[in-house]
C-alpha cells in the first residue's frame, strides 16, 4: 500500500476535523470527494507531511515516518499541490519549478531536463521564461502541477487541481492524470464530481471527518436513485451516499 | 564485398545531406554492405539543424552554485536583508554627522539578523511556506540556510556599527548578533518566528535602553568581558534548536 491511514484524528483547537478516518490507496488515480469542510484539505495536508495527526497511524510508501531520515526519504518521492499557493515575485516559471526540484533533492544531473519535461507535460514550455506574476490563474495552477510532478513522485497529492482551468485544459489534465496514475499513486481532491467520473479509477467520499464511501465511480453512481438530487448518475449517487451517512 | 566504392565528394555530400534522393539511396545501400566506405564517412560533417525547433530559452546548468543561488537567494528574506542593509548604511552616514546618537546603532545593529530571520519563514511572510514544508529540504534545514544568508549580510553591518559608534570593540558586535538570532530560532520552535523576534528584539531594546544612564554600561554589552556570556547563550540556544528540531518540520 502506498498510503495506509488508520483511525486518523486531527483537531484544530476543540474542533475535530478528522475523526478516526481509515484510508488505503495503491497505484492509480483516486478521487477524494466531499462537501466543503468535510476534512479533504486536512487529509491532504497530513499525507503531504505538512500537518501532524493528533491520533492514529499514517504509513506513506511503506514507511511509518518514525524519524527525520525516514521523513526526508518520503518527501523526496512526494508531489503536492495545495489548494492555494504563492510564488516569489522574481521567479520565472522555469525557476519556480527548478526551485522545487532542488528542494526535493533531485540528482543535479537530472534537473534541467526534468524541469522542462514537467513544463511540457502541463503545456507551459512556451511560457517557461515568463515571470510567474504575468501568468493567468489557470496557468499558475498548471505551474503548480508542474512543480508537483517534476520529481516523478510515487505519491502525488493534488488539492483542487482543476480550479481555474478552462474546459479544454481540464480534458488535457485528465489525460495527464491517467498517464501519471500508471506508476504513481495519485490522490485528487475535488468538488467537481464529473472530474472523478472521467479520470479516476476509485473514489473515496469523506464527510464529517470520516470515510463514508470507497469504490469505483460506477459503484458510486449505482448508489443513487431517481429520487436523489443531481444532474448525473454519479451526482445522484453522491447525494444518496451523503444522505445515508448522515441519517 | 564489392570493388566499387563511393567517391569522397559523394560521401561528404551524403553526410551533409546535400545528395539528391536517388543518389543518397544508392550510397546508403552501398554503406550497408561496405565497411571500408562506412569508415570513410566524414565525421566532421555537421548535419543541418532542424529549423522548426522552438528556442530553448534560459535553461540553467544544474551546478552547485546554481543550487546555492536558488535555495538561499529565493526566500523572502533575501530582499528584506538587502533593504535593511541599505537602511543601516543610511543610518551610519547620519551617525557620522552626529545627528543620531550612537546608542541607536547598538540598539539596531545586533537586532537586524533577528528581524531578517523572522521574515525568512513561516506562513505569514513566505508565500511558498506550505509547499516548501512538504519537501525534503523543508523544516529546520531551509530555515538554517536562510538564517545563514541573513547573517552573511547583517554581521558586517553590525561590525560597521561598532566601528562607527565607537562603543565597545567592533568584532565583539558579532556575538550578540549571533546569540540573539540563535535565541530567536530556539523560541520560534515554540511561538512561531514573528512572536519570537518580537520577544527577543524587545528584550534587547530593554537591555540597551536600560544602560542609557551611562554610556560605559552600554559599551559593556559589546566588549571582551561579555564574550563568554554571549558564547554561552549561543551554545544554549543551539542546543535547544537541535533538541526541538522536530518542531520545525
Outline the structure in words.
- The complex is a heterodimer of chains A (247) and B (249).
- By secondary structure, chain A is of the alpha/beta class.
- Helices cover 38% and strands 24% of the residues of chain A.
- Chain A is built from 9 helices and 9 strands.
- In chain A, helix 6 (167-180) links the parallel strand 6 (155-159) and strand 7 (185-189).
- The radius of gyration of chain A is 18 Å and the shape is globular.
- By secondary structure, chain B is mainly α.
- Chain B folds into 2 domains: 1-48, no CATH class; 64-248, no CATH class.
- Helices cover 65% and strands 0% of the residues of chain B.
- The chains are: A alpha/beta (247), B mainly alpha (249).
What's the layout of helices and strands?
The complex is a heterodimer of chains A (about 250) and B (about 250).
Chain A: E1 3-12, E2 15-25, E3 28-33, H1 40-47, E4 55-60, H2 68-76, E5 78-81, H3 93-103, H4 111-121, H5 137-149, E6 155-159, H6 167-180, E7 185-189, H7 193-199, E8 202-207, E9 210-215, H8 217-222, H9 233-246
Parallel strand pairs in A: 3-7, 3-8, 5-6, 6-7
Antiparallel strand pairs in A: 1-2, 1-4, 8-9
Helix pairs in contact in A: 3-4, 3-5, 4-5
Chain B: H1 8-15, H2 21-33, H3 35-38, H4 64-73, H5 77-96, H6 102-108, H7 112-120, H8 129-133, H9 140-165, H10 174-191, H11 193-210, H12 215-220, H13 227-243
Amino acid at each position: 500500500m502506498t498510503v495506509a491511514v488508520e483511525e486518523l484524528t486531527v483537531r484544530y483547537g476543540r474542533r475535530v476535523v478528522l475523526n478516526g478516518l481509515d484510508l488505503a490507496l495503491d497505484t492509480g488515480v483516486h478521487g477524494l470527494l466531499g462537501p466543503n469542510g468535510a476534512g479533504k484539505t486536512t487529509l491532504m495536508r497530513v499525507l503531504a507531511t505538512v500537518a501532524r495527526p493528533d491520533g492514529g497511524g499514517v504509513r506513506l510508501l511503506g514507511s511509518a515516518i518514525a524519524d527525520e531520515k525516514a521523513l526526508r526519504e518520503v518527501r523526496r518521492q512526494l508531489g503536492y499541490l495545495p489548494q492555494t499557493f504563492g510564488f516569489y515575485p522574481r521567479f520565472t516559471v522555469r525557476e519556480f519549478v527548478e526551485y522545487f526540484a532542488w528542494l526535493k533533492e533531485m540528482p543535479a544531473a537530472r534537473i534541467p531536463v526534468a524541469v522542462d519535461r514537467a513544463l511540457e507535460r502541463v503545456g507551459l514550455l512556451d511560457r517557461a521564461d515568463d515571470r510567474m506574476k504575468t501568468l493567468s490563474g489557470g496557468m499558475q495552477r498548471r505551474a503548480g502541477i508542474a512543480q508537483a510532478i517534476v520529481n516523478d513522485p510515487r505519491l502525488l497529492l493534488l488539492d483542487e487541481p482543476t480550479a481555474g482551468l478552462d474546459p479544454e485544459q481540464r480534458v488535457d489534465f485528465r489525460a495527464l492524470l491517467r498517464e501519471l496514475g500508471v506508476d504513481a499513486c495519485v490522490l485528487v481532491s475535488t468538488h467537481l464530481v464529473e472530474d472523478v467520473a472521467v479520470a479516476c479509477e476509485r473514489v473515496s467520499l469523506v464527510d464529517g471527518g470520516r470515510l463514508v464511501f470507497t469504490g469505483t465511480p460506477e459503484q458510486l453512481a449505482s448508489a443513487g436513485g431517481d429520487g436523489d438530487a443531481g444532474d448525473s448518475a454519479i451526482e445522484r449517487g453522491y447525494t444518496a451516499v451523503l444522505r445515508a451517512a448522515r441519517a | 564485398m564489392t570493388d566499387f566504392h563511393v567517391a569522397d565528394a559523394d560521401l561528404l555530400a551524403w553526410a551533409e545531406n546535400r545528395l539528391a534522393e536517388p543518389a543518397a539511396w544508392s550510397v546508403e545501400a552501398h554503406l550497408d554492405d561496405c565497411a571500408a566506405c562506412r569508415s570513410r564517412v566524414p565525421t566532421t560533417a555537421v548535419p543541418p539543424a532542424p529549423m522548426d525547433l522552438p528556442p530553448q530559452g534560459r535553461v540553467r546548468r544544474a551546478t552547485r552554485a546554481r543550487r546555492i543561488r536558488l535555495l538561499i537567494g529565493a526566500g523572502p528574506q533575501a530582499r528584506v536583508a538587502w533593504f535593511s542593509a541599505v537602511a543601516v548604511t543610511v543610518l551610519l552616514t547620519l551617525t557620522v554627522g552626529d545627528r543620531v546618537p550612537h546608542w541607536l546603532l547598538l540598539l539596531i545593529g545586533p537586532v537586524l539578523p533577528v528581524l531578517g530571520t523572522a521574515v525568512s519563514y513561516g506562513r505569514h511572510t513566505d508565500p511558498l511556506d506550505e509547499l516548501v514544508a512538504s519537501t525534503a529540504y523543508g523544516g529546520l534545514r531551509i530555515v538554517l540556510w536562510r538564517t545563514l544568508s541573513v547573517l552573511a549580510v547583517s554581521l558586517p553591518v553590525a561590525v560597521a556599527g561598532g566601528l562607527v559608534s565607537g562603543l565597545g570593540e567592533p568584532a565583539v558586535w558579532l556575538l550578540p548578533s549571533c546569540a540573539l538570532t540563535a535565541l530567536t530560532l530556539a523560541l520560534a520552535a515554540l511561538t512561531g518566528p514573528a512572536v519570537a523576534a518580537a520577544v527577543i528584539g524587545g528584550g534587547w531594546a530593554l537591555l540597551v535602553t536600560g544602560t542609557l544612564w551611562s554610556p560605559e554600561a552600554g559599551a559593556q554589552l559589546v566588549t571582551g568581558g561579555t564574550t563568554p556570556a554571549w558564547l554561552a547563550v549561543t551554545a544554549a540556544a543551539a542546543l535547544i534548536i537541535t533538541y526541538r528540531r522536530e518542531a520545525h518540520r
